[in-house]
User: Which sequence fits this backbone?
C-alpha cells in the first residue's frame, strides 16, 4: 500500500522545512495582537519596529523574527511539548439559515502549528482529496461547484435521463473524532512518526476530542475524511456480462453537502450502502432525508420557458446547491439569498436618490453580493434594478472608506513609533 509524507521529504523537526508554513501563517495577520506578541517575544523586533515596518511596507526586520518563531515552534516539536492554551468556544447565529453555530477561537501558537501540519500533510491531501470536492479548498469554492454541476447537466449527460440525490452529513465536524482521523492518517502516512505525533498533539487540544468549526487544520482534515466517503460511494457498481456499471455517474461535494447523479433506483441503493458503511467504518451519519430531483430534457425546459413568458410561475426541477439552483439551460440564485440581495439593492437605490451616495456599511454588503449576480443568469434583474449604477456607487463608497481606514491606521502606527522613541 502506498504511503505519503515520507520522512525524507517531510521533516517537521526541521526549522527550515517549517519556515515556509510559518510565513504563510503570518501573512495578513500582523494586525492581530496575538501574532505581534509572538514576534516581539523572540527579542528580535519590538512593537515600534513592527509598526514602522507596516507603515513603510518593509519586511527587513519582520522576516528574521518570523524565522525565529519557526525555530521556536520546531524546538517545541522536538521536545514533544507544545504547551497550547485551551480553545475558546462560543456560539453565533448563521445569517441565512438562522441556525446556532458552535465556533471556536484558537491561540496564535496553535494556529501556527496548524499551518505547519497542513503544509506537511499537503502531499497526502493532494493525493486523496477528489476533484469533485470544492469546499474550503484554495481556488475552489461555490463558483467551482456550480460549474461542475453545470458541466454534468449540460455537457456530460445532456442527452440522458438523469436524476440527482442530494444529501449531507449530520453534525459534520462534531461527528469526526480525533481517533477516526488518526486511524486514517496512520494508514496513509505510516513511517513519519514525528508528523503523526504533531497532528495528534495539535488535535488533542480540540474540545471533546472532535474536529472543530473555524480551524485551519480541521477544514483540510474533514475534506480528507469526506474523500473516503465519496470514494466508496463512487465505487459502488454491478457487473453484467463482464461489463461494469457504476451506480453514480457523477458527484459534486461542498463541505458536508454532496450530490450524486445517475438513475434514481441505483442512486437510492448507493445512498443506502454508503450510509451503512459510514456508520460502521467512520461513525458518520448521513441524514435520512434526501432531496431528489429528475432533470427534464432541453425540449421540456424550452417549452416551460415559453410558458413562463405567458405568465406561468412554474419551473422545471433543479438542484439547489452551493447557493445556486442549477437546471439544464440556466442557473439562478437560491431564493433566500436572492431576497437578501434584492432588499439591499432596493435600499441602496433609495439612498442613492435621497442622499446621493451609499453608506459604506451597505456598500460592503452589495459588493460582496455581486458575485452571485455575476455568476448566475440574472441579466434581466441587473437591467431592471440598475445594478451597474448601484455597483459603481458602492465601489466608490468602499474605496473612500478603505482610504480612511488606511490613513487612520498609518497615523496610529506613527503615534506608536513616536511613543516608543
Assistant:
Amino acid at each position: 500500500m502506498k504511503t505519503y509524507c515520507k520522512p525524507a521529504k517531510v521533516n517537521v523537526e526541521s526549522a527550515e522545512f517549517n519556515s515556509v508554513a510559518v510565513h504563510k501563517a503570518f501573512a495578513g495577520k500582523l494586525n492581530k495582537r496575538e501574532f505581534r506578541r509572538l514576534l516581539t517575544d523572540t527579542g528580535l523586533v519590538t512593537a515600534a519596529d513592527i509598526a514602522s515596518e507596516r507603515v513603510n511596507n518593509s519586511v527587513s526586520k519582520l522576516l528574521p523574527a518570523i524565522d525565529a518563531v519557526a525555530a521556536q515552534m520546531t524546538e517545541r516539536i522536538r521536545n514533544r511539548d507544545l504547551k497550547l492554551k485551551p480553545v475558546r468556544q462560543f456560539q453565533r447565529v448563521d445569517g441565512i439559515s438562522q441556525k446556532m453555530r458552535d465556533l471556536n477561537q484558537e491561540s496564535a501558537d496553535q494556529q501556527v502549528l496548524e499551518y505547519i501540519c497542513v503544509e506537511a500533510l499537503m502531499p497526502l491531501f493532494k493525493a486523496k482529496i477528489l476533484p469533485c470536492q470544492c469546499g474550503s479548498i484554495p481556488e475552489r469554492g461555490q463558483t467551482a461547484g456550480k460549474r461542475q454541476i453545470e458541466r454534468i447537466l449540460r455537457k456530460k449527460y445532456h442527452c440522458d435521463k438523469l436524476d440527482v440525490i442530494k444529501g449531507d452529513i449530520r453534525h459534520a465536524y462534531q461527528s469526526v473524532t480525533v481517533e477516526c482521523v488518526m486511524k486514517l492518517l496512520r494508514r496513509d502516512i505510516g513511517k513519519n512518526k514525528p508528523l503523526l505525533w504533531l497532528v495528534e498533539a495539535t488535535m488533542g487540544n480540540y474540545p471533546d476530542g472532535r474536529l472543530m468549526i473555524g480551524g485551519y487544520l480541521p477544514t483540510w482534515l474533514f475534506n480528507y475524511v469526506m474523500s473516503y466517503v465519496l470514494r466508496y460511494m463512487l465505487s459502488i457498481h454491478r457487473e453484467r456480462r463482464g461489463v461494469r456499471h457504476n451506480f453514480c455517474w457523477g458527484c459534486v461535494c461542498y463541505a458536508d453537502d454532496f450530490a450524486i447523479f445517475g438513475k434514481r433506483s441505483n442512486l437510492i441503493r448507493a445512498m443506502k450502502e454508503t450510509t451503512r458503511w459510514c456508520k460502521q467504518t467512520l461513525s458518520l451519519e448521513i441524514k435520512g432525508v434526501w432531496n431528489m430531483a429528475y432533470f427534464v430534457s432541453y425540449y421540456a425546459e424550452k417549452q416551460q420557458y415559453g410558458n413562463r413568458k405567458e405568465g406561468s410561475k412554474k419551473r422545471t426541477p433543479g438542484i439547489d446547491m452551493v447557493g445556486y439552483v442549477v437546471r439544464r439551460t440556466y442557473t439562478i440564485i437560491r431564493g433566500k439569498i436572492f431576497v437578501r440581495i434584492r432588499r439591499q439593492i432596493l435600499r441602496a437605490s433609495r439612498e442613492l436618490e435621497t442622499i446621493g451616495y451609499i453608506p459604506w456599511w451597505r456598500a460592503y454588503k452589495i459588493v460582496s453580493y455581486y458575485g452571485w449576480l455575476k455568476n448566475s443568469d440574472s441579466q434581466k434583474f441587473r437591467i431592471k434594478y440598475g445594478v451597474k449604477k448601484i455597483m459603481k456607487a458602492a465601489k466608490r463608497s468602499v474605496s473612500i472608506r478603505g482610504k480612511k481606514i488606511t490613513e487612520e491606521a498609518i497615523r496610529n502606527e506613527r503615534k506608536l513609533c513616536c511613543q516608543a522613541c
In short: The first strand starts at residue 88 and ends at 93. The radius of gyration is 25 Å. The chain has 16 helices and eleven strands.
